[in-house]
Amino acid sequence: MAGKKKEASLQVSVTNQEQWEEMLAVKGLTVVDVYQQWCGPCRVVVSLLKKIYNELGDDLLHFATAEADNIDALARYRGKCEPTFLFYGGGELVGVLRGANAPLLQRMIVQKLGEEKMVLEKGVERKVIKDSGLGEDEQKADVETQAEDNIIVPANKSYTVAIIKPDAVAHGKVNEIIMKIQNAGFQILAHEERRLTEDEARDFYRHKTAEPCFEDLVRFMSSGPSHILILSQAEGSANVVPAWREFIGPADTEEAKRERPESLRAQYGTEALSNAVHGSENIEQASRELAFFFPNFRMASQTEQDGKEEHAERTLALIRPDVARERREEILSQIKKAGFTVALQREVLLTEEQVRQFYSQHVKEDYFPALLHTMASGPVLALALARQAAVRHWRNLLGPSDVNKAKEESPECLRAQFAVENHPINQLHGSASQEEADREISFFFPQQQTLAVIKPDALREHKETILEEIRGSGFSVVQSKEMVLTKEMAEELYKEHKEKPYFSQVVEFMSSGPCMMLILNKENAVEEWRAMMGPADPEQAKATCPNSMRARFASNILHNSLHGASTEERAKEKIHFIFGDICSDVEPGGEGETDRTDIAKEQNSLGAENSDNQRQEH
What we know:
Layout: H1 2-6, E1 11-14, H2 17-24, E2 29-35, H3 46-56, E3 61-67, E4 84-89, E5 92-98, H4 102-122, H5 137-148, E6 151-153, E7 160-164, H6 166-170, H7 174-183, E8 186-194, H8 198-204, H9 214-221, E9 226-233, H10 240-248, H11 253-259, H12 264-268, E10 277-279, H13 283-293, E11 297-299, H14 302-305, E12 313-319, H15 321-326, H16 328-337, E13 341-348, H17 352-358, H18 368-375, E14 380-387, H19 390-398, H20 403-409, H21 414-417, E15 428-430, H22 434-444, E16 447-454, H23 456-472, E17 476-483, H24 487-493, H25 503-510, E18 515-523, H26 525-533, H27 538-544, H28 549-553, E19 562-564, H29 568-579, H30 593-607
Parallel strand pairs: 1-3, 2-3, 6-11
Antiparallel strand pairs: 2-4, 4-5, 7-9, 7-10, 8-9, 12-14, 12-15, 13-14, 16-18, 16-19, 17-18
Helix pairs in contact: 3-4, 8-9
């Protein structure tokens, strides 16, 4: 079906269920304009679709129109007249857009085509969505989610911001300029219409503050809508930043007309400020401007380009004492329903000094005394939450920081749901950025060291695999060495087990060949390493923790491959015994070091659920 229609029209016409099913079987991304017979398809976007198709020239991109009246799968779209575009990949719905929003439609086509190519070429899992139909909250949420998705681009190309300024927009030259941009070989990866406020214009052009025309520039750029584009060039071509500046010509329009009459500014500019288009001056400025206009723009990581799953982002969440006592389980349940994993969890009683240190930027605020009282009034539950885009999703789930505003504007948000009556302080905290999240997680979950031993049996057969998995799990190896333990050293290493019947066998085995000793560093390192090893008995490990190292590598309870200290104190003792006095990665006397140490001690005492005698170290 698709082959017959392609020569006659860019959009394949689908008018019945059989043709619909044929369309879904087409390889690649298909953008479907859903319509009803009485109103017809959306004609205003046809020229845009042609431009996009000509620009991308990709055989995996397809367009179709689908008449909902005679297609059973589209029954829920009948009786509606709003333009609706459905994005299908591999027969699955991967995107929805309602309304003839040309910039957003172009952006979504580029993004969804890129995602579908990653599915087909790299085996990345396809992100399938549900559309519950027009007018329902779930549908609106789906559309908003699509609009907020990251713009992820290949890392082997360069990118810049282009602005079609208010003067060119007012003169109706946008489509003409865009056509020239595309004909010159530039690729448009995103396109948004936006009117800058004066504050935004000042911030954007802050590097020109000292220039005499700065205030005039601010007024001009905020005088009407602009069109903001992300530009790139074909793979293997030169840096796009100088290429774009060469194409637009000198900033002064008179100079442009004299020296570069074919440039955009010569053709569309009228004076120095009203020069039609903007271009980033260098790579550094391009990066800043991309972040300014497109905060979700980023280059694909190596794991994404290789088709591997991207590591989750982490953020800090705090449940303050008032609700940590009464409603923690409700909050934890909502956290898990929102797709977060609790990577680290600690309950800690903060001193007033520790609260002041953590909230140092808020000390002079009027609300700080109430915040200080709240945070020091009882145990705080600290969580490191993990998922993709964790910072943004957690802050969206929290809602406004002002409790009254949260109740009025977002009554379903967590801060509104778990507000304490007559209390001005919200009951949940979230990091504001990834950098802040890293600092805050380090505050509540300081780096810890533990001793790990790869025993003689595992060292012979599984050394490289074990080391690879250790590093892949986020541990850093501070020091390591291979050594053959003497009988006396083995006895000292396992002295806590001296009265156990298996003690002599353990000592004999541990001194029978080389072991590898490692100092591992990570948040909560002692427990994390013990969890990674699994139970001391391999049979129990296979039953309860089949993915643990002992379940996979150990042969019996004596030859169980690995050793780890049971507590932080024992880890320090064993590290000193094997490696002697060593320097910690954290410089002593560093700012906040005493407080972080105190927190760690409090957390260890609060979190210890098992006594040393209940643990098996061998």
